[in-house]
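Example 3.2
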Amino acid sequence: MQQSISTAVNVAKPLHDVTMSSRDIAEVTGKEHFHVLRDIRTMLEDLGESEEGYLQSWIHPQNGQT
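Structure, written as tokens:
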């Protein structure tokens, strides 16, 4: 008879939402930022979600560009 071993993993719920900017994702993954944005939009579309509430414009503090 074969015995199985199970391991319980406790995952604590964070006190607040954990978020990451698309620029951070691009840096961590080594992707171009516009590719990350494309992928986010594709995922939202696949989920039937609107970009509203998820994507925000970011303005560079030094040159005012988005």
